[in-house]
Amino acid sequence: MTIFGKLLISFSPEAHPPSHKGDGAPPPSKDASANKTNGAVSLATLGPGRGGKITAIHAKGILKRRLMDMGMLVGENVKVEKLAPLGDPMEVSVRGYRLSFRKKEAEEVMVLEAL
Fold it and tell me: Is residue 67 a part of any domain in this protein?
């Protein structure tokens, strides 16, 4: 914050959100419903043989770091290879190798399904 005479000027990003282009469309939403509009689904909802491109990772903290360390990065292609008999855990291929993790972890990864 800077005080210039009697005028208080704030430069915090929260006080002045970035301007939206004047095309008449509302600014993009950051909530989970925004994923439905762009067609992204949770990785946990895909069956064997289906896959797509990772669009977001909603996990927080150590789980997000672990997923990213294993190669689950936005923009990478991922494919569900196998599901256990009860559906948990699941095996996926990403970046040329296979990973297995729980459905709860897979729910945090949003994928734009390939046609």
Answer: yes
